[in-house]
Amino acid sequence: MPAVPMIELWRGGMLESMHLGHAVICDEKGEVVEAWGDPDAVIFPRSSCKMIQALPLLESGAADAARLGEPQLALACASHNGAAIHTERVARWLSDLGLGEEDLRCGVQMPDDPAARKELICSDTSPCQIHNNCSGKHAGFLTLAKHLKAGPEYHEVDHPVQRAVRAAFEEVTGETSPGFGIDGCSAPNFATSVHGLARAMAFFAGGRLEGTPRERAAARLVAAMTRHPELVAGEGRACTKLMRAMGGSVAVKTGAEAVFVAILPKQKRGIALKIMDGGTRASEAAVAALLRRLGAIAPDDPVLARYLTGPITNRRGLAVGDIRLSPGFAA
Amino acid sequence: MPAVPMIELWRGGMLESMHLGHAVICDEKGEVVEAWGDPDAVIFPRSSCKMIQALPLLESGAADAARLGEPQLALACASHNGAAIHTERVARWLSDLGLGEEDLRCGVQMPDDPAARKELICSDTSPCQIHNNCSGKHAGFLTLAKHLKAGPEYHEVDHPVQRAVRAAFEEVTGETSPGFGIDGCSAPNFATSVHGLARAMAFFAGGRLEGTPRERAAARLVAAMTRHPELVAGEGRACTKLMRAMGGSVAVKTGAEAVFVAILPKQKRGIALKIMDGGTRASEAAVAALLRRLGAIAPDDPVLARYLTGPITNRRGLAVGDIRLSPGFAA
Question: How distant, in Å, are the alpha carbons of A34, A59, B324 from that of A294?
Fold first, then answer.
């Protein structure tokens, strides 16, 4: 089944641009409740699966052995802005492990946070690996590697850390991964279907502190994300704004190339979607539409207008267009 | 006819993202030589039609009355970076007209040029309308408005400047525009088909200094663009890099929402394309592919690899993927 029209941009009463994609809503059994496009389309989840990559950190006992708190667990699931609230916590986390920035393998990234960016640029200071949006995930990898007494190249696909990630990933997606790519942060990113990713999110939605070790790990990670939305992304970012708008009842996570997932414990639903062209504006609009459809966010919440309808304003602040759902998608 | 697959992004040996679009190559008669997708698809050219919007500036005699040189004509066709080479020329142009920044109607934009951006951010200085990437086009509009002794609201669709732009636009596209949208810079942007836009570019390719006033205007604008590629966009930008790589023999221009056009005087061809989803990375790759197909750029030029094939590198500089032409497009 091909990707289907999901998000449209209109200007002057005419369609200007359109985004196609695939989306799946799964129930607690991992069955498809609703789907658009091809549920079996194979995708790279990219950063949308960071909570899956964090499962072995908790299940192994490594997180508790290192006395990680909820902020660290939220950062392990984060694609953060590189703001001080993120980088200071990751730096302390590394030093508590007896490690440093040089032990990371995520690479250097200029932060998106305006204040952090301004400070670096105006002082002619280069960013470091702690500024990388994935530095919390990598601090989690290092925590697990230390607990497993494994080697320093924790990002290599045959390292015990990534072998544990792959096992957890295949179990919660319910699929044998057809392969992996190397992510922007140099960690392996395992492929799955949109259905598999939604099934994994439905598993997280069913996480229970009194359940199995994996169910308990899932519940703790979802709690960390929903209680610390500012740590999962940052001020002004869609993940943070959407989680705040839903009052901590839903966890959402974006991924590069326009992947978006949502974990809805009350509704016992998991959502996964991929916009074929990698356009983030469309993945943000599409997940907002599905959250509205499932009653997770108030129809009159201004955050919905921000991502779902526009208006699109120009450089003089004039409304020049709007965002629309394509007919047949999540109306 | 639907949009067709044009540009693919691959990672780990798997297709990760794909862009669909429409593209047309026209000959000097305005006939379709080759097309992909729907030649009749209606699009907003956005900034890709700035050389069309500049035709009345020359045809009216306004440019010569104001003694505009080639740099000003290039800036009238530009979506510039807001670098000093752009803003200083536009500021001088306005003052030579006896006007100032406050007479512009394009709105304020933070420049993309790293040095100009750093200077503003680190001095806590707000950008002004001269930094707007369209300020050269608007200086051209003001030059024409003054020549026509018309009012100051030159951006309004019923103003003599925009009426002249619409007439020229419909004549060179060979179509009655079905309507207009308001662009990011608040000027009207008239819609046309991909074929109409390619037909207009073929007209520019046939521009002759010894021809009609319009053919002469077209030839002067193409010469200005190809001789001043750094003024049409800026350092590091696709338009500038591609025009430099082609040694001044071809003019190219990007537009918002993934429109790209090319003017090939030697081949007597015009190219227009629109990526449906508005993804600029794909419009840049697609125009590079068509320029290669028409023999306008050397197949081994490194600029082609930059836009057409990748590799896609990650934050540690590792090659993690590549860009590919979809089967059947411009191979």
Answer: 11, 30, 38
Q: Which chain B positions have a beta carbon within 8 Å of A79's beta carbon?
A: none
Q: How far is B111 from chain A (nearest CA, A)?
A: 13
Of B186, B258, B315, the CB nearest to A132: B315
Non-local (6+) Cβ contacts of A137 within 8 A are A47, A50, A53, A54, A75, A76, A77, A78, A106, A185, A187
The three-state secondary structure class of B189 is strand
B contacts of A18 (beta carbons < 8 Å): 276-277
Tell me how many domains chain B contains: 1
How many other CB atoms sit within 10 Å of the CB of residue B303?
A: 18
C-alpha neighbours within 13 Å on the C-beta side of residue B44? 27
Does B311 contact A at CB distance below 8 Å? no
Contact residues, B window 155-184, toward A, CB-based 8 Å cutoff = 178-184
Per-residue tokens: B234: 């800026």
Question: B314, B320, B326: best mutation site toward chain A, by most A Cβ within 10 Å?
Answer: B314
| Cα A283 to the center of its chain, rounded Å | 12
Residue A125 sits at the chain B interface (C-beta within 8 Å): no
CA-CA distance, B192 to B11, in Å (whole number)?
36
A-B CB pairs within 8 A amount to 143
In a domain, A331, yes or no: no
| Domain-embedded: residue B331 | no
Structural domain contains residue B190: yes
A312 → chain B, closest CA residue: B184
Q: Which residues of A touch B131 (CB under 8 A)?
A: none
Query: Angle at CA A90, nearest 5°, toward A88 and A91?
Result: 65
Neighbouring CB atoms inside 10 A of A236's CB total 11
ipTM above 0.95, yes or no: yes
Per-residue pLDDT of chain A (331 residues; tens, 9 = 90+): 799 999 999 999 999 999 999 999 999 999 999 999 999 999 999 999 999 999 999 999 999 999 999 999 999 999 999 999 999 999 999 999 999 999 999 999 999 999 999 999 999 999 999 999 999 999 999 999 999 999 999 999 999 999 999 999 999 999 999 999 999 999 999 999 999 999 999 999 999 999 999 999 999 999 999 999 999 999 999 999 999 999 999 999 999 999 999 999 999 999 999 999 999 999 999 999 999 999 999 999 999 989 998 899 999 999 999 999 999 999 7
For chain B, first and last CA: distance in Å?
A: 20
CATH code: domain of residue A227: 3.40.710
Measured in angstroms, the CA of B294 and the nearest CA of chain A are apart by 26
Rg (CA), chain B: 19
Nearest CB among A181, A279, A314 relative to B12 is that of A181
Domain enclosing residue A231, as ranges: 4-325
For residue B274, tell me if it sits in a domain: yes
B279 at interface of A, judged by CB pairs closer than 8 A? yes
